[in-house]
Amino acid sequence: xxxPWKYDFDIARYTREIEQNPKDFRAFKERxxxxxxxxxxxxxxxxxxxxxxxxxxxxxxxxxRGNVYMQTGQYxxxxxxxDKAIALRPGNGMPYNNRGFAFLLMGxxxxxxxxxxxxxxxxxxxxxALNSMAEIYAARNNAEEACIWLQxxxxxxxxxxxxxxxxxxxxxxxxxxxxxxxxxxxA
Length: 187
Known about the structure:
Layout (H helix, E strand, L loop, with lengths): L3 H17 L4 H13 L3 H14 L4 H13 L3 H14 L5 H13 L2 H14 L4 H13 L3 H13 L5 H6 L10 H10 L1
């Protein structure tokens, strides 16, 4: 777990880089990432906005700003940013997975699955996309299929047990035998 003072140290570091080079769009993006981890979403969005102003083709700034919007429940804005990131870098699976997860949270499971499958075609070992597929099948109340996807994610390295234990996306299958076995085995 990151110590809270580490965020302040990193923010100060990127602020110094920005002061030395105010056109360093990557430094704005990195500082935005730290603000996001610190849960200072307004500051994160401001830094991603500045990175985009400095480099309108910087797909990571759109993707990351979309993550902030998704975290704050602004799904339409998140999807707009993921759309832009995909338009700029269609061969990168990350924004497809993120947009798919936004669709999942909105209850649009078909759109979610289409995006996450695209992400997996681009990167078959994307453990986050594998977990997202598990969440889609959990939302469809298909415990067996959800467990198959979750087990694949775990076998490839997904280990965010706190998320699996607490995310409401798994609520529909928490009492399923396969899910309980996974949790007992890995908890």
